[in-house]
Specification:
CATH architecture of the largest domain: 3-Layer(aba) Sandwich
Strand content: 15-25%
Helix content: 40-55%
CATH class of the largest domain: Alpha Beta
Structural class: alpha/beta
Number of helices: 13
Number of strands: 13
Distance between the termini: 106 Å
Order of helices and strands: HHHEEEHEEHEHEHEHEHEHHHHEEE
Shape: flat
Number of domains: 4
Radius of gyration: 42 Å
Length: 434
């Protein structure tokens, strides 16, 4: 290094500023030091009136002076504190005033989340380079799916939101749940297995994969490389529905369509039955209008030809035109009837599902009533009487449980399962205390 130093610098005594500037140039033009992440613990943090942040990051006995200037500091997500484990990004430079090197930072992240984000960016770049995000591999979402698979937690809010929206928009669609964990160490493997199992079926038109919102750690399963590759390899089109609108995971980049929430995934998965009914009605009106216009035009044409065709040929041509008109009317009427039948089928299916739901609900209520009635009968005193026991009461119809509450000669009333008896006390035996 000294030989290189002698070759580059002129052969005369150098000023301190020249030496410092030379070292500064070496640090500045070294790629590894101009784009660097450093992990350590914050100490000696200060924020003077200027708004800059000055601190040190340390690890055992090693420290590096750091500065984050005001224009970067105001964009930090949270103010760091002494003792925080952080990742700081920036470049190494020389502070000429005391000739010490320092790290000029432009990003600051908590060490745990920061490492996760760095790993995510690395994996994202890797998958993008392999083409997993390319638009050319995106499969088309079917317009009218008959059966939809959902890969999510069986107990989470996501599946409830998806079923509710699908039932409101397109009640004839069937939903098949593939229950999995959606967070934790075991979640990625379960999600991958569920996607693979779904792809072994031949009756699924679409898959929705996702969960409700949460912290970055809770959503991390959907940043797993195996999950991303399973979504990419799926032969069934997949809509990702992970978290809220601002949450974006690798699953969103790989999926054929990314929905902001589970509810919006269900909205994109199926058409709205009310819109379909309106479209069918509008199409029916347009077809009828077109038929009228065609008939009107052909009648006009027929009148023109009647004047042009010789008398002996007019009748044949008229008959041909009439036959042509009848065929057009028949074709359009058949098309209208087919549209109307399809709409009726949708309505009938919806009504059948509603009737089945009401029937199941009624059966459940009746079963519950029978169970409760049986329990109530077991507790009823009348049930006890049926087994040969009786109830003895005094003249005021108060039950007698203790021989000491009556005297010799008193009249008592005995209630049996079948009828009542009136008796007089001729003797009694009391139970001694204890």
């Amino acid at each position: 290094m000294m030989e290189l130093f002698k070759e580059i610098l002129p052969q005369h005594p150098y000023t301190v500023a020249e030496v410092v500037q030379y070292i500064k140039d070496i640090l500045t033009f070294e790629p590894a030091l101009s784009d660097i992440w450093v992990k350590g613990e914050i100490s000696d943090l200060s924020r003077p009136y200027s708004g800059h942040l000055y601190f040190k990051i340390k690890e055992e006995n090693s420290t590096i002076n750091c500065v984050i200037f005001k224009n970067r500091a105001i964009n930090l997500e949270s103010m760091p504190q002494n003792g925080d484990e952080v990742l700081i990004h920036g470049k190494i430079d020389i502070y000429p005033k005391n000739s010490t090197y320092q790290l000029i930072g432009d990003q600051l992240k908590p060490a745990g989340i920061g490492m996760m984000q760095l790993e995510l960016e690395r994996l994202k770049a890797k998958l993008e380079a392999e083409g997993l995000f390319d638009q050319e591999y995106k499969k088309t979402i079917p317009s009218f799916p008959k059966k939809i698979g959902v890969v999510t937690s069986a107990t989470g809010a996501a599946i409830q939101d998806i079923i509710r929206v699908l039932s409101e928009r397109y009640p004839i669609v069937e939903v098949l749940l593939f229950p999995t964990l959606v967070q934790g160490n075991e979640a990625p493997n379960q999600i991958v297995t569920a996607i693979q199992v779904a792809n072994q079926r031949s009756d699924l038109d679409l898959l929705i994969v996702g969960r409700g919102g949460g912290s970055i750690e809770e959503l991390w399963s959907f940043n797993d490389e195996l999950v991303a590759r399973a979504i990419f390899s799926s032969q069934i089109p997949i809509i990702s529905a992970v978290g809220h609108e601002t949450d974006i995971t690798l699953a969103d980049f790989v999926a054929d369509y990314r929905a902001a929430t589970p509810s919006s995934a269900a909205e994109h998965a199926v058409p709205d039955q009310h819109n379909l009914k309106r479209k069918i009605h509008d199409q029916e009106l347009r077809l009828l209008q077109d038929i009228r216009q065609i008939v009107k035009f052909l009648r006009t044409e027929l009148q023109v030809f009647e004047y042009q065709i010789p008398a002996e040929r007019q009748l044949n041509r008229i008959n041909l035109f009439r036959q042509h008109i009848e065929q057009i009317q028949l074709i359009n009427q058949n098309a209208i009837q087919q549209q109307i039948h399809q709409l009726k089928d949708i309505v009938n299916l919806y009504q059948q599902k509603q009737m089945l739901f009401v029937k199941d609900l009624k059966q459940t209520k009746e079963t519950k009533l029978q169970v409760n009635t049986a329990k109530l009968n077991q507790l009823s005193p009348l049930e006890t009487l049926e087994r040969g026991y009786s109830i003895v009461s005094d003249a005021e119809n108060k039950p007698i449980a203790n021989a000491s509450s009556v005297d010799i000669g008193d009249t008592v009333y005995i209630k049996l399962s079948q009828g009542e008896l009136t008796s007089q006390i001729i003797s009694k035996k009391e139970v001694e205390d204890g």
